[in-house]
Specification:
By secondary structure, the chain is α+β, with helices and mostly antiparallel strands. The chain folds into 2 domains: 54 residues; 72 residues, Surface presentation of antigens (SPOA) (Roll). Helix content is 42%, strand content 22%. It is built from 4 helices and 4 strands. The longest helix has 34 residues. The two termini are 32 Å apart. 0% of the residues are buried.
């Protein structure tokens, strides 16, 4: 629940920031118009401001080592020390998914006693767009 409230707070903050920047741009344009003898000054292009709104959107990133299918009876038999065999071989690249869409493959590394992923193959933008349809 706290993450939902935190996400809502971030979204609200971004909208407030965007609106205040828009108000400032309009105020500057209005001042220039008044000084220029009444001719309307061209409004500054806010393309990068619109892009800035997208940069703060949270995404779910998943690293998938492999998958397994089990029947319920086998699942109930699992205990401490049990091993689940995955469908991938050791040393095979793992898949990096963003919002359940494959974007890259990589290998597991250890950095300062924490697991990380070294990207070895990034899916091209064209292939990513094909995945959407």
């Amino acid at each position: 629940m706290a993450s939902d409230q935190n996400s809502q707070r971030v979204v609200d903050y971004d909208w407030e920031k965007a609106l205040s920047e828009t108000s400032l741009d309009e105020g500057e344009a209005g001042g220039a118009a008044a000084e220029g003898g009444g001719a309307a000054a061209p409004k500054p292009q806010g393309g990068h401001q619109n892009l800035d709104l997208l940069l703060d959107i949270p995404l779910e990133i998943t690293a998938e080592l492999g998958r397994a299918k089990m029947i319920i009876n086998d699942l109930l038999q699992l205990g401490q020390g049990s091993v689940i065999e995955l469908n991938k071989l050791a040393g095979e690249p793992l898949e990096i998914m963003v919002n359940q869409k494959l974007i890259a493959r990589g290998e597991v590394v250890v950095v300062n006693e924490k697991f990380g992923i070294r990207l070895t193959d990034v899916i091209s933008p064209l292939e990513r767009i094909k995945q959407l349809s």
